[in-house]
Design goal:
Blueprint (H helix, E strand, L loop, with lengths): L5 H13 L5 E3 L13 E3 L5 H8 L14 H9 L8 H8 L1 H10 L7 E4 L12 H22 L3 E5 L9 E4 L2 H8 L5 E5 L5 E9 L5 E3 L3 E6 L2 E7 L6 H18 L3 E10 L2 E8 L9 H4 L4 H9 L13 E8 L7 H10 L4 E4 L9 E9 L2 H17 L4
Parallel strand pairs: 1-2
Antiparallel strand pairs: 3-6, 4-5, 4-6, 7-8, 7-9, 7-11, 9-10, 10-13, 11-12, 13-15, 14-15
Helix pairs in contact: 1-10, 3-4, 4-5, 6-7
């Protein structure tokens, strides 16, 4: 697994149970997965030579992030390695404009969108101020024309690299568009979606085409960061849930995904719209460790190794996962004992990461029969661990 963050760390637990020897490529020895995986190799995922040295002897190669250059993935495949997902699939999680073009080509429901001129998209570096200004002016005209058709505000997104609310600008005027374009980053514009809530569907697909879908979940966002996942999505009409799963499985098939695919969606008054894609274990699926017959991490390993896929069914009627975000006090462990004693049914998962305000440092999971009760338990544990306060 290229990458040694918390996703690789949690994959190790499933690898042990499956009898799989997991190797990870880390930038430094103190990364989350590097702290717990014996076969950790140090290297730069942006360097093909490091990737080739890392891959030697591996039966399959997968990723815990989408940042490996596409041309390097193609080179590894040309060397004869089973790279899963492959470059032709993964590019749709790396490049939002490529993703939108492909999804709309086969009818997946998406917001109205367009590419925007300006910045590095036109081969102009962020430091080349005059060039960025000229192309930025053209970009402002394009976005203004788009807004004339679809209305303000307009959502500008970095085509590559954005996550957890970074690389997204909600612009209400041409002046705000100009400011967003000033960074010289390739952008696309999307119509603002007045959604009712955000949903996510996690599916898995193996090389020979077997596919499974987990129940549709609701994700609760705060400042662009997911803070809570409710499984299954409460009050979701069964027909709309089935439609969300159908869309996700169709996307996995059309893009040739191998492994996990997370499809983030908007639920609107007029139906579902696809927002983002990720081709790896995903934050919206962490609940599966304690709340599903097969965790997303085990499922990903099964898929990339072309093993029969496991059951995605829930092990309890209701599961709530709450992310732990770093606060002002880095000493979470002085509150650790209280949370365990207060609610022995709470499951705690720490990522071995330095505590910083707003950083995802772990998650808690609660299971049960009643949504409000289970949700209150998860919230209490997460808030108290972070702040020492009760909710």
């Amino acid at each position: 697994m290229v990458g040694a963050g918390q996703l690789a760390r949690m994959t190790q637990q499933s690898a042990i149970a499956l009898g799989v020897e997991l190797r990870v490529l880390a930038n430094t020895s103190d990364e989350s997965a590097a702290r717990v995986i014996v076969d950790t190799r140090l290297g730069d995922y942006r360097e093909l030579a490091d990737l080739r040295e890392f891959a030697t002897g591996c039966h399959a190669i997968t990723f815990d992030h989408e940042h490996v250059p596409t041309e390097h993935i193609r080179a590894l495949a040309a060397d004869g390695y089973a790279v899963r997902p492959g470059a032709d699939a993964l590019v749709h999680a790396q490049d939002k404009a490529v993703m939108r073009e492909r999804l709309t080509s086969f009818g997946a429901p998406c917001p109205a969108w367009t590419r925007v001129s300006g910045g590095a998209a036109d081969g102009v570096s962020a430091s080349a101020a005059e060039g960025v200004s000229a192309s930025g002016a053209e970009g402002v005209k394009e976005v203004s024309a788009f807004a004339a058709e679809h209305g303000w505000p307009v959502v500008l997104k970095a085509i590559r690299g954005g996550y957890d609310g970074r690389g997204v600008w909600v612009c209400r005027t041409p002046a705000e568009v100009e400011e967003a374009l000033s960074g010289g980053v390739p952008l696309m514009a999307e119509a603002f979606v007045p959604f009712e809530r955000e949903l996510a569907v996690l599916v898995a697909r193996s090389p020979h085409g077997q596919g499974v879908s987990y129940p549709v979940v609701e994700t609760v966002q705060q400042d662009g960061i997911c803070v809570e996942v409710l499984a299954p999505a409460p009050g979701l009409d069964p027909e709309e849930a089935a439609e969300a799963q159908r869309i996700a499985l169709q996307i996995a098939h059309e893009l040739g995904v191998t492994g996990l695919l997370a499809v983030e969606m908007f639920q609107t008054a007029d139906g579902l719209l696809v927002n983002e894609l990720a081709m790896r274990p995903h934050n919206s699926g962490h609940w599966t460790i304690d709340g599903s017959r097969t965790s997303q991490f085990e499922q990903h390993l099964r898929a990339v190794l072309d093993l029969p896929l496991g059951s995605p069914s829930m092990s309890a009627p209701v599961v709530v996962m709450a992310n732990l975000l770093g606060g002002d006090d880095p000493d979470l462990f002085k509150r650790y004992e209280h949370v365990m004693a207060h609610d022995p049914g709470i499951k705690l998962h720490f990522y071995g990461k330095e505590v910083r305000p707003g950083r995802k440092i772990g998650h808690v999971t609660a299971v049960g029969d009643d949504l409000e009760t289970v949700r209150a338990r998860a919230r209490h544990a997460a808030v108290y661990l972070t702040t020492g306060e009760y909710t």
